[in-house]
Amino acid sequence: MRTKHAEDPKKFMESEVELDTAIQEMHVLATQPDLYDCFVEAGGPSLMLTLLSHENSDILGATVNLLQELTDVDILNEGEEGAARLIESLATGRIVESFLTAFEKLDEKVKDDADAVHNALSVVENMIDFRPETAEDCVNQNLFIWLLSRACQKGQFDANKMYASELVALLLQLSESAKRKLTEKVDGIDMLLRALAVYKRHDPENLDEREHMENLFDALCAALMLPANRGKFLDDEGLQLMNLMLRERKQSRESALKVLDHATTGPEGKDNCNKFVEILGSSFSYLLFN
């Protein structure tokens, strides 16, 4: 209706109100996961995926909210085969890619849109928990790079930035392809280091931001499990940043030491070891124990 009567909102407004009402009524399905099989048979997942491309951001947000509730991990575990079919249908329909397209239409400065993004990330996390292969979908369908950019975005800290950093760390821990993708077309190591540099001389302002900082450190540690990324870490002066964090004695200090452990471990860490000794000289023990 919106496409047909684009110049006359009155002609499609009523139908969109009815659509929104229908979506709200579908929330009852989350209380009866035994009906998920019927929902899949009726083409429910395909309809949800179609609605993710709706021009009305309110409809888009309502759809994401419904999906977030339907994919709650506790509910999925009750649904057994029906839940597995639901998740598989959403994955086959490339829901991750659909979310990425939807994000382009949403303005996170608007609370409802920011909530829609947060709910979408929750769906992704739920699906990874229930179907670990979803981690590869996130990499292959480019959500991983979006998450990396969002987690490392300059400016004000917010809940979606924290959620993005959590998922970046999770994907790097689960997926070898994510570790490789990190430096294929962007320098993800440098992005993580720049995001962490904020905490070189300043502590996070609250517990949520502290968690965000730790997520970034966890992501960096996971990335360094791939030998090639250790070379990027060296080239991007990651050792120098970790050294400064050790010297400043802020909340980042302990995690910086953990990163150094990952960067210098094993034969692949030899170059980092040599460079770190060069940077520190004889002050290493002093830094650690004073």
TrEMBL record:
It comes from the Eukaryota. The keyword Repeat applies. Keywords: Coiled coil, Nucleus, Phosphoprotein, Repeat. Component of the PRP19-CDC5L splicing complex composed of a core complex comprising a homotetramer of PRPF19, CDC5L, PLRG1 and BCAS2, and at least three less stably associated proteins CTNNBL1, CWC15 and HSPA8. Interacts directly with CWC15 and CDC5L in the complex. Interacts with AICDA; the interaction is important for the antibody diversification activity of AICDA. Interacts with PRPF31 (via its NLS). Interacts (via its N-terminal NLS) with KPNA1 and KPNA2. Gene3D superfamilies: Leucine-rich Repeat Variant. It is found in: Nucleus. Pfam families: CTNNBL. Component of the PRP19-CDC5L complex that forms an integral part of the spliceosome and is required for activating pre-mRNA splicing. Participates in AID/AICDA-mediated somatic hypermutation (SHM) and class-switch recombination (CSR), 2 processes resulting in the production of high-affinity, mutated isotype-switched antibodies. Residues 1-64 form the Beta-catenin-like protein 1 N-terminal domain. Its main location: nucleus. One of its GO terms (biological process) is gene expression. InterPro entries: ARM-like, ARM-type_fold, CTNNBL1, CTNNBL1_N. One of its GO terms (cellular component) is spliceosomal complex. This is Beta-catenin-like protein 1.
